[in-house]
Amino acid sequence: MPVAIITGASKGLGRALAEALAARGWDLVLDARGADALTAAATAVAGYGTRVEALPGDVTDAGHRAGLVAAAWRLGGVDLLVNNASALGAEPLVRLAELPLEGLRRALEVNVVAALGLVQEALPLLRESPAGAVVAVSSDAAAEAYETWGGYGASKAALDQLAAVLAEEEPRLRVWAVDPGDMATELYAAAVPDDDGPRPEPARVVPAFLRLLDERPASGRYGAPSLLEGR
């Protein structure tokens, strides 16, 4: 069975994607910082009958990243790496004039440095896969200027650029940066707690990611809404 590593998999998009892949028979290595929430997610995902390894930890820890890849190796390798774990930099979001620099450093460490570190750790196994792929979960804030989204958006823009360069350097892989669009997640609620407008649940966005895996278009940046409209 194919094997995927998904970071930030205890809730939101990460968990929804894990459940969708498990339903298709994928074996999974799941990461999140919260051990209890990750255990609950892994138990639910394992109900589909696939093998699931849940490793709580922080993706900024090199030892934890190595542990995720080692767990995937024990399951058979790495066919898909989803860098989904994200940090906002400030909760709620604030204007750049007020953004704590430590918060910005945290966002860059989680969203960019750790993402690249995990790619580096997994690359030998990804190269061995007949259909190796990397998904970088991006944001429209990486491409558009929104007040208070500067730090987070800058980190996601950097992630997009890393994904684009990785695609050039590893032409045998598929490397997709995916903007999932608006979703009802705890991350968004923490970012803008006063905005309680209706948003789609993450599970409604997952078919866009599955389409990429099914059709394997060229490496590049994709928006989930466009992928969903084109179904």
Furnish the topology, listing elements before pairings.
Elements: E1 3-6, H1 12-23, E2 27-32, H2 35-46, E3 52-56, H3 62-75, E4 80-83, H4 101-128, E5 133-137, H5 150-169, E6 174-179, H6 186-191, H7 206-215, E7 220-223, H8 224-229
Parallel strand pairs: 1-2, 1-4, 2-3, 4-5, 5-6, 6-7
Helix pairs in contact: 1-2, 3-4, 4-5
Quick structural gist:
Helices cover 47% and strands 15% of the residues. It has 231 residues and is an alpha/beta fold.
Overview of the molecule:
- It is globular and about 50 Å long.
- It is built from eight helices and seven strands, in the order βαβαβαβαβαβααβα.
- A seven-stranded parallel sheet has the order 3-2-1-4-5-6-7, sandwiched between helices.
- With 231 residues, it is of the alpha/beta class.
- The mean pLDDT is 97.
- The longest helix is centred in the middle third of the chain and has 28 residues, at 101-128.
Low-confidence stretches: none
Q: How would you describe the shape?
A: globular
Distance linking N and C termini: 26 Å
Quantity of strands, as a count: 7
Radius of gyration: 16 Å
Structural class by sheet pairing and helices? alpha/beta
Beta percentage is 5-15%
How do the strands line up in the largest sheet? 3-2-1-4-5-6-7
Mean pLDDT across the residues is 97
Number of helices: 8
Main sheet record: 7 strands, parallel
Helical amount among residues, as a percent range?
Answer: 40-55%
Note the run of SSEs as H and E. EHEHEHEHEHEHHEH
